[in-house]
């Protein structure tokens, strides 16, 4: 997969992809990340990429022309087959909230183009005529789309086959499995008087699985009850949730 990131702050990307799993994926040739400086596509003598908004209002708006020229230059290099598996994504607080399902869909594409929104936003013609998807990473406002582009790149990368060691570590993820992950422990068995739960040392795999499942349900109910509506729950799970006092109209 090739990931193109269009930004007016290319230097922000020095670092985040040069460590750990993403770096390994780049070195192994599984992904290729290309950072594009939108300003290089500016066409006036001041290298403008932004301007005031028509109708008046606060702040500056990203101009359409440098973004169109940059994206169209990238798309022109692609084959028909690649074009059919390419997404052009705009990061902005007005986008659709990113979730694991969307990340998974994106991770199957051959090319991903991410335009990092800035200032008050981008000219609406970019959204209307250039992008395939607009993405927000949460209900808060960032100074720009760069960090969101890093988040998206990171989340897509780990889903590409061969990047993360075992399928099991992906399928067992919080969210991917529909529930939050259960608590996990490593050495030492006793740390500052705090013991690892007895059951994990019991060697009884049936009991361990049951404990983990219940901890997952517990944690999901406490932190993300919204996930329970879509989660795949067994009769046992439902009985356990009822014992915790969970009652929800959407859930039966
Ligand atoms: Cl994608 N961009 C900005 N500027 N703020 C955000 C965001 C994106 N997602 C959440 N907040």
Compact summary:
With 252 residues, this protein is α/β, with parallel strands linked by helices.
Describe the overall structure:
- By secondary structure, this protein is an alpha/beta fold.
- The protein has two domains: 156 residues, Alpha/beta knot, CATH 3.40.1280; 81 residues, Trp Operon Repressor, Chain A.
- 35% of the residues lie in helices and 18% in strands.
- It has ten helices and ten strands.
- The strands form three sheets. A five-stranded parallel β-sheet has the order 2-1-6-5-8, sandwiched between helices. It has a three-stranded mixed β-sheet with strand order 3-4-7. Strands 9-10 form a two-stranded antiparallel sheet.
- β9 and β10 form a beta hairpin.
- α4 packs across α6.
- It is elongated and about 70 Å long.
- The chain binds 6-chloroguanine.
- 6-chloroguanine binds next to β5 and β8.
Question: Secondary-structure blueprint of this entry?
Answer:
Layout: E1 2-7, H1 20-27, E2 32-37, E3 50-52, E4 60-62, H2 64-76, H3 80-83, E5 86-97, H4 100-107, E6 111-116, E7 121-122, H5 124-129, E8 133-136, H6 146-157, H7 167-171, E9 190-191, E10 194-195, H8 205-223, H9 225-228, H10 235-243
Parallel strand pairs: 1-2, 1-6, 4-7, 5-6, 5-8
Antiparallel strand pairs: 3-4, 9-10
Helix pairs in contact: 4-6
